[in-house]
Amino acid sequence: MDDLETRELRYFVAVAEELHFARAAERLGIAQPPLSRAIRQLERRLGVRLFDRDRRGAALTDAGRVLLREARVALDTVAAAAHRTRRAGDLKRPLVLVTKAGASYELLQRLLDTCASEPGAPPIEVLLCEVGEQAGLLRDGRADVAIMHRPFDDLAGFDTEDLCVEGQVALLPAGHPLASRSQLTLAEVRDVPDLPMARWPRLDGSYPDGPGPEVHTQSQLAQLVALGKTLLVIPASSRSWQWPAHVAVPVVDAPEVTTVVAWPSSSRSPAVASLVRSAAGLRSTALLAPAD
C-alpha cells in the first residue's frame, strides 16, 4: 500500500470534524465531488470504511475514529517539522515559552528572571494562551517549552520538570453565601443549585455533562462568575486574574496540582535545556499564591 499523503489526511480530518461533506469542502476551499472521490479512494486503499453516510451527513466508523486520532498526530508532526526547521535557520530567534493566561505571575516572573541571569541566555518570548492549548502549540512547533499543570493538561509525548505543588480554591461571586466560608469541600461546591460549576472542554474537545455553562476562555469565565452564573475550582496560584467581584475559598479535599515545565521529548535544543535547568533551580523555592 502506498504511503498516506498529508493532503489526504487533511481532507479526511476536515470531513471527520465537520461530519458533512459539503461543509468540509467549503472549509477546504474545494468542490465537494473531488473531496468525496478522495475519501472513497482513501477508503479503498486502506480497505476499510471510514464513514457511514446518509442524506444528513456522515458519521465516523470505528476505523474512522482511529484514523482521526492518528491523522491529527501525523499532521501536527508535519507542521512541527516545518515550524522548527524555519526557526532553526534563524540564529537570533527567541525561545518561545507558552503558558496559560492567568497562571501564576510570580512563578513565571521568577523563571524569566533566572533564565535572563544565565550567561549567553537566549531571549524568551512569552506566548499566552487559553486553558488546554499549550499541548497543541508544543506539538506543532509554534512553542519550544510550556508551563502546564498535572493532572489537568495533556502531557503525552513531553518531558517535564516539576516546579511546585499546590492546593485548589473555589472561585465564587463575592456576594454568594459560600464566599464567607473559610474553607469548602468538593461535595459542597458540586452541589450548589443556584451556582452550577463551569464546564471546560475535555482533551478531546467534548464537554462533561452537567447544568453549568460551557466555557472556552478565562475572560468568559471571569464574567460569568462575577455575574453569579457559575463557580469553578482552580489551582490557588491561578487567582492572579481574580476580579474584585470574586472570592477564592480553599477546597480542602481537592486534588493537589503540580505546575511543570514541559517540552517535546525529541527536543535537543540547548536553549530549552538551559531553561529547564533554571526551572529545576526554582523548584524548592517556588512562590505560591496564598490559599486564604
Automatic annotation (TrEMBL):
Cited PROSITE patterns: HTH_LYSR
Gene3D superfamilies linked: 3.40.190.290, Winged helix-like DNA-binding domain superfamily/Winged helix DNA-binding domain
Domain of life: Bacteria
GO CC, alphabetical: protein-DNA complex
Domain HTH lysR-type: 4-61
Molecular function in Gene Ontology: DNA binding; DNA-binding transcription factor activity
Keywords: DNA-binding, Transcription, Transcription regulation
Keyword Transcription tagged: yes
Pfam family, one: HTH_1
Keyword Transcription regulation: yes
Similarity-based family: Belongs to the LysR transcriptional regulatory family.
Protein name: DNA-binding transcriptional LysR family regulator
